[in-house]
Protein 1
Amino acid sequence: MSERTLDRRGSGWMFVRANPGIVIGAGLLLLMLLGAFFAPLPFDPVTPDPANVMLSPSGQHIFGTDSNGFDVFSRVIAAGRRDLPLALIGTAVSLVIGLLIGLPLSSKSRYSEGFMRALDAFQSFPLIVLSVTIVALTGNNIENIVYAIVIINGPRFIRLIRGEALAIRDGRFIEAAVASGARPRRIVFRHIMPNVVDICLVQSSLTAANAIIVIAALNFLGVGVSPPDPTWGSMVQAGAQGISLGQWWVAIWPGVAIFVAIASLNVLANGIQRRVEGG
Amino acid sequence: MLSVSGLTTEFHTRVKTTRAIEDIGFEVPAGVAVGLVGETGSGKSVTVRSIMGLLPTQGRVVGGRAEFEGADLLAASGKELRSLRGRRIGFVAQNPFGALNPILSIEKQFANVVRAHRKISRGDLRDLAMQRLESVQVRGAERVLRGYAHELSGGMAQRVVIALAMVHEPSLVIADEPTTALDVTVQRQILDLIDAQIAGGDRSLLLVTHDLGVVAQYCQQVVVMQSGHVVESGAVADIFTAPQHPYTQQLLAAIPAVPWASEAVQKEVPIV
Amino acid sequence: MSLMELSGIRHVFKQSGKHVHAVNGVSLSVDPGETVAVIGESGSGKSTLGRVALGLISPTEGVVTFDGTVLGELSKAEMRAARASLQVVFQEPFESLNPRIRVGDTVAEPLIIHDTGLSREERRAKVAEVLERVGLTAEQGKRYPRELSGGQQQRIGIARAIITGPKLIVLDEPTSSLDVSVRARVLELLRDLQRELGISYIFISHDLATVASISDRVAVMYLGQIVEQGPTQEVLTNPKHPYTKALMSATLSTVVGDKRQHVPLRGEIPNPSEAPTACVLSGRCPIELPECSLGPIEPRRLAARHEVACIRVDTPLVKESV
């Protein structure tokens, strides 16, 4: 083969062709986020309209209305203002914790083993129960759900990043850096961290997807919900009874929204993974 | 014995298609050792894998013929190829531990290879395996048979691989960088061994290597590849003394001469 | 006064319960501007010795003296600072470069680490200068490792090694992973740099032919010990140790028909954890005597700096009448 295999970065269209997963996943996500914050909503999501209760989907109310007369469509979109950013923030905090603790732990010190065992013990608790308790105790507002996400995913990131960093430390270029006289801090920030970025991106996408489920689940159980603010999970809960009465639209549309959010994140994760492997 | 012409192979990925080798042609006459030599990216491994039908999924032969014992290997069905591999064509790869199954005993692996092509009783199989191992100078054949690949050194493992490759008395042996992963002193022993399998008969050898010293000492013919093409081929004696193609000239010039043709060494280590 | 002195180096570590003597009593010295080649096959301990010389491994026994200072006595910070003078080039060109950093930045790194007081502009100029010296352009310095060929990657490794003006570089099989046509040019580069900058090299390799043209002295290692060392020409024209002879006879020349009779050593290289306690070659040597298994063999001095660890130095290996 006389040509060197060029890496898949190229201009515009080449990138899209070569990385469909990343483009679709990130694109959908961005669309949902922007829509949640900037799209003009046909109806006010928090103003009840007793006159128009339980209407099935029509030209006026695309997704129908619920038992309070809220327009389902507007509420589904508006819920994105809470659910998505919370998932992303929770993920970001978990990631930062993973980096701050996982990277230093990858050096062979006495403390690292001990800390990992402590982490094992911590993770053996039923974390969802723990997070529900914490949220309930700190106040049942939706921001505290971030704590729940961080408690569950922080340890996962620590483990992942530490594992990856340990593997990277065996690399010849790390030895070369040491042989050049680099201090341990420089090795961590200049050499190890850039090489864990790939796996962090993949894991972050997956964690964000998981976070959406956690948020929806907790909201479904009534945790962290303050009516009339819309969240997907609580909307599903409110509409669940209606399904047996034939009023499917109240529960399904928020369910679809959850699904699309998770799917786009999974597609993004997959796309990043493919690119990392191919490169 | 083996006649290759116009062999062209491509690799397809979602983003592009690369032509790995183009219009490759050479002959491996009966009883002759032919060296297929080239550096990384020359396409020598792709050539051999195309002939054997062992390309990865993205690889596809898009043209050419590889005539062996009256059949075109490139046009052969999977079943036909499987029948030829191991029985009429023996293959020795670079990494012996990759070629051996880590979880089966050596004896079991002999059984698999032999039974793929013929019926044999357990007792006869053991005798055959013992004999084969002894013919490649494996000491303690009994224990080796009962043992596993990871218990062997690199040199021993490669001997076992050679024994397995030869067990059906193939008429063509293809060795793809068989000694690259081995120590210098072991390399010599293994090459002498492979040489002995060919010597004085109709069996042919296609030896793929990047090491011109190996070709000079063990092959009668050579095919030089660069960037997916054959640049020069012919008798080793001719090409090594008077290379025609600039690439061949450059390659030969780049090799440091072995600087110990002095009296003292010659006396002790005479030329064979 | 030698630039580097390795005295009585022993390095033992435990592996699945057994003691492995990776380096088992090695003494070697390197003068300023000199190239000493360390030759050996697997299990010889040559790579371990290289890392001991670099101070990357602390030997279980023995002293490493570099430029007048004993490496073992330096603090961590002092050792790091000493690395400006003591550099390395590894075997695997791609693996020794951080895949996420542009190669020019990799070359600049030692300058940053050793805080040479240069401004960013000055650093960039120095990098460009060094790149040119190793035969690369400043443009190529902006690339990532995967965009360069093996030979180019190794030149980057060399550039990184010379940028702080080191006195000694340990090269661990620097050309073994490169294509044949590239090797000669890299060796030539190394020779030129040595002539120009007066750097000493410890050149580790498994191939005598590679080092023949570049080394002043050669040390042949087997199972953790040096079995023969001396001026390169002397050792190559007058090898005395059976292992050296076996190694030379096994090397294949490209002169057609020049296949030398192979001096076989019985058996195979044993696992280093099972190394013989007497002569390292016992059990395999073609001219072995019972005396060889009595105890460790002391190196015997022959002509100028030519030492051999064998009690039968003048015995021919192969009968002439074969």
Protein 2
Amino acid sequence: MLTVLLRILRRDLLLAWRRRADVAGSLAFFVIVCTLFPLGVGPEPALLRSMAPGILWVAALLASTLALNRLFAHDHADGTLEQMALSSAPLPLIVAGKVAAHWLVSGLPLVLLAPALALQFDLGSEAAGALTWSLLLGTPALSLLGAVGAALTLGARGGGVLLSLLVLPLSVPVLIFGAGAAGAEPGDATAAASLLLLGGLLTAALALGPWATSAALRIALE
Amino acid sequence: MTHLEGTTVSASHTLHTVRHAGGGKRWLRYAAPQSFFPLAGRAIPWLLGAALLLAAVGLYLGLVAAPPDRQQGDAYRIIFVHVPAAWLSMVIYVAMAIWAGVGLVFNTRLSSMMASALAPTGAMFTVLALWTGALWGRPTWGAWWVWDARLTSELLLLFLYLGFMALQAALDDSRRADRAGAVLALVGVVNVPVIYFSVQWWNTLHQGSSLSARGASMAPVMLHGMLVMTLALWAYAIAAVLQRLRCIVLERERHTDWVRQFYVESKR
Amino acid sequence: MSLQVHQLACARGERHLFSDISFELQRGEALWLKGSNGSGKTSLLRLLCGLGVPLSGEVRWNGQPIRQLREDYHRELLYCGHAGAIKDDLTAWENVATASTLAGAPCSLEQAVNALASFGVAAEAELPARALSQGQRRRVVLARLALEPLPPLLLLDEPFVALDAGAARTLCGTLDRHLSQGGMLVYTTHQPQLLKARRLEQLDLDRAREALAC
């Protein structure tokens, strides 16, 4: 059973590799949004430093939501999704493999880029570290949650905008705990507590997300 | 032995036969749209009457009988609409999720239609709660909007309602719309406590302004007033939802004989 | 082993495609679904897979409803739909390997190439599917039928479309072998094919709907 998950993961990574340009798009979006905020609020360093965790988190949230369209759309269009629904392996497992590949391609790069962008906002190294950890825990949760939205809106009119409308309100807890962990004073109890809560959300998303997503996929395939 | 009925198909009757549960549970008959329709029609005027009566009593209690607040004067009286509206917006969301879940699991059409009917009314109450919250905020805290935990959660609840309605509107197949909406509503209802908790957390983290107006204990008449207003709004909500549900039933079942019959009779 | 369909009804949006379809399929038997475009052949096949919930009626595998069997039933069937499940960015053999992985029996490169060879596209094994012609793509789709072992129930939607005579012969041979080994087949096609099934039934959905309308 694990072989199926790994093979699906490998297949999706292979496909993403062969379409590298698509993938780079959401990363570029992340960087652009982070650049827009200082242009909007002014370059004052103290202000930017205090806003940085929130800005980076919102940008990561938006970039991650933007990439969700790609998760099931191609497979749905060429009939592979039906084969996945008819597989002898449980559909939640296949979904988990796809979401894992999606995170590796769309979420992990954001995490890796975050320290560099934190420099742009003059965040201290401790704060940048907290931010990176929070993104590391938070972006998988966003992918898992977003997968449910992507499955629900498969082939629906209004596509990406509808997906954002559904996913963004549900992602608010992840945003709050993530930005809270990133923005707290180093050594403050709230930082650790926020990270723990974020971890809790990730665990819940891991347990329930693939299952809800497969239910939504089967509904979309009816 | 194989026999193919493909070549000699017996025409089945209309696919919308009323389902009769075995064992004579009469109320289950109303699970079919055809039986439910006239019943709802009869109930609506009574509910509206009850709503008007209760609203009159509630408003009297709130606007006249209750004493002015020591700090806020008469401005606080808006809570007699604000709090019931907020309560109802949350109750309706849960009810919507329950009906949608029932429709998903038991495959009953009317339950899903009920969920679709509940959504706009719930959204309306959320808007009412937000609007009255703003009206309350202006004289009390000097701002039209404050990012306190409750108001922010209400706003997010409004987005959840809008998302549900948008999803159902975007899917053409009514069956898929019902089932996808059900999954969304169930995911939402599980998330609502999480969202509420996280917003509270966020608020205390950033030292939100102290605006729990129910700091001191409330005078009993205020509590009575709010309860009566809640019942009034609840009666109105049920009436509005039933009316909308009747419209949805007519639209979905427009190909059946009984709807055609109803249409012909209503023309006379 | 048997597939039983009991008073199946299906609707697509507002249109009622068919109702009261019943039949039973035993080992070695094939069922040919006929009907004009839009008569519900693909919908019926999908209902047999379990991809949709019928308006009424039931599909049973060995006496048990497929709704309850879920993955156990999926293990016993292979469905080739219209869309073919071919990814443009994967090579031909990678596509076959993915199909076998999803079927639960991952295959090696050699096995995938052999399967492609039996349908005459071994030379294109390393080419991305994007570079293949329509006929070659169809052969890659069908190559998964050459992977052993085949599940007992085959559900094929328009398998003969875009195939030349040679490929059609290979496909007939594969299906005949499957049926003679006790497999079952439900398929749709607009061309009459001669399969040596123990029993070859036909189900005409147009006639079924006409009988319902009057």
